[in-house]
Amino acid sequence: MAPLVEARGVHKSYWLGEKEIHVLRGASFSLEPGEMASLVGPSGVGKSTFLHVIGTLDPPTAGTVLFEGQDAFSMSEEHLAGFRNNSIGFVFQFHYLLPEFTALQNAAMPGLIHRQPREKAEAQAREMLEIVGLGDRLDHRACCSPTSRPATSTRLPAKGFTRFSAS
Ligand SMILES: Nc1ncnc2c1ncn2[C@@H]1O[C@H](COP(=O)(O)OP(=O)(O)OP(=O)(O)O)[C@@H](O)[C@H]1O
Ligand SMILES: [Mg+2]
Question: Is the pLDDT of residue 117 over 90?
Answer without folding.
Answer: yes
